[in-house]
Design goal:
The chain has helices spanning 30-53, 56-75, 126-131; strands at residues 26-28, 76-78, 93-98, 103-109, 120-122, 139-142, 145-152. With 153 residues, it is an alpha/beta fold. The chain folds into 2 domains: 13-78, Helix Hairpins, CATH 1.10.287; 93-152, Chitinase A, domain 3 (Roll). Strands 5-4-3-7-6 form a 5-stranded mixed sheet. Helix 1 runs antiparallel to helix 2 (56-75). The longest helix has 24 residues, at 30-53. It is elongated, with a radius of gyration of 23 Å.
């Protein structure tokens, strides 16, 4: 029989590898949990729209994001405000002065919430690790240089 009359199987699915998931605990603030739920909702809506339009690439991209955000939602651990408000901890805002005089404020949040351009850093970042459990007035080392914690709130 001629190959011209044999129908080739169609592979019309697009698969993308899963996004890597951090090995650290998925600590989140209340706002971080809401953001995870919001992201999941947006990608579920994008998946439905892409399926309706028959856009295989968009279906694959949305599926990948849904898998990621479902995993993050399942592992999320909401951290309540600490009892001791004098020491830097998860969810708190820290202001410090670097040795060159620059002042910097940032909030310590979960990995998915972190956006340094908006003043939030992950609790596993070197910056957060340097200040965690320290109080205002204490000096800490950040990237080999000294910084003074001015405020913890």
């Amino acid at each position: 029989m001629s190959r011209a009359f044999v129908k080739e199987p169609e592979n019309d699915t697009v698969e993308l590898p899963d996004r890597p998931i951090s090995s650290h605990r998925n600590l989140v603030t209340e706002a971080g949990l809401a953001a995870i739920k919001g992201a999941l909702g947006r990608f579920e809506a994008a998946y439905r729209a892409a399926t309706h339009e028959g856009d295989k690439e968009a279906v694959a991209a949305a599926s990948r994001e849904i898998r990621y955000w479902k995993a993050r939602l399942a592992s999320a651990e909401v951290v309540k405000s600490p009892a001791d408000k004098t020491k830097a901890s998860f969810g708190m805002t820290v202001t410090l002065r670097r040795d060159d005089g620059r002042e910097q404020s940032f909030r310590i949040v979960g990995e998915d919430e972190a956006d340094p351009s908006r003043g939030t850093v992950s609790y596993v970042s070197p910056l957060a690790q340097a200040v965690l459990s320290h109080s205002a007035g204490e000096a800490v080392m950040i990237a080999g240089r000294e910084a003074l914690i001015l405020d913890v709130r």
